[in-house]
Amino acid sequence: MRTVIVGTSVAGVRVAQALRRNGGEDEIILAGEESHLPYDKPCLSKGMLSGALAPEKNCLLTDSAAAELGIRTALSQRAVGLDPAAAVLRTTAGRIPYDRLVIATGASARRLPWSNLPGVHSLRTRTDCEALRADLRRAARLVVVGGGFIGCEVAATARGLGLDVTIVEPETTLLPAAGPELGALAGEWHAGHGVRVRVGEAVHDIVRVGSVLAVELRGGEVLDADCVVLGVGAVPNTGWLEGSGLDIADGIACDAWGRVRGHENILAAGDVARWQDPVSGAARRIEHWTNATEQAAVVGKVLAGASEVAAHRANTYVWSDQYDRTMSFVGRRAQATRVTRFDDPRKGGVAFVGADEQGGLAFAAVVNWPRALLAVRKAINGSVPCAAVEEQFATVA
Asked: Where would one find coiled-coil regions in this protein (predicted)?
């Protein structure tokens, strides 16, 4: 039995490892378009970008570990097509027949009209990181377009390198997906470190004038920069699946075990996959590291033929390190109708807890408060009422 995993993302690597861990004896081929060995992406905007973390310390699967597990890596092979009827994956290096296929091709940075300008960067791959780091070493002024988690992390790293930094975010707060409460705090932290935070403003155009990038805001103001980072979201890498017959609208449609609808020998995991929620029946695509690893664990069990594999129910969980703070976010802020703030009286941590219309725990945002984070993660995965969670905060400090 040959299992081909396309995509050397954390989801792809973890599927291979989980298949072996659960006793699967398949021939495993792990194919990916990058030339680098698989690496962890959360570090790209922090330690890898600053240069504090060496690339060899950020490896998900070394050559020796792959050999020990019997995983054959096929790097520098970009997927260009799929023929499910013939069970053949087409790559830039040729055709790879499979008995079972796992798609873990992740997502790519959303592109804007200025993406190809010299000095304008996105950050999604190690190559992106290396190019951006080289430009930051020569730059004095950085404009970050987009104040989400990636944009804020890049801004914090750049300030640590001594650059003059401006964040431009069209919403009224930083971290808009996490809600105004955490976004307002993040704005205060960045401003306190000398970052100019421009919320409620959008970029109209970016042009290059000699060695300077002119970032024009919609109100007409122009910000001069030596370097610009676009942090405006990502899109699933499904273009190569056009014509394959797979449902690829906003990611590959899967059931709650990662099996691709209509194709019993194809599964998908990670940022590229849209899994069905076993409770609500709704399909969701979640672009976060933890979700990718949890899905991979399920797919590995399914491939290994484990009995009674529990369906995966995804809950958004993302963490971010900015300056001396670690912030974590779980759940869905948009579902909260009431939000309560709690403060750690001993160590200065902060938590926001949101209840939905039925009194359930909709979301929580936690900063520098590990015990509070543990409590809300357990609660949101166990459907604990929000009132019960709020009562716990008297004891978790």
From this structure: none
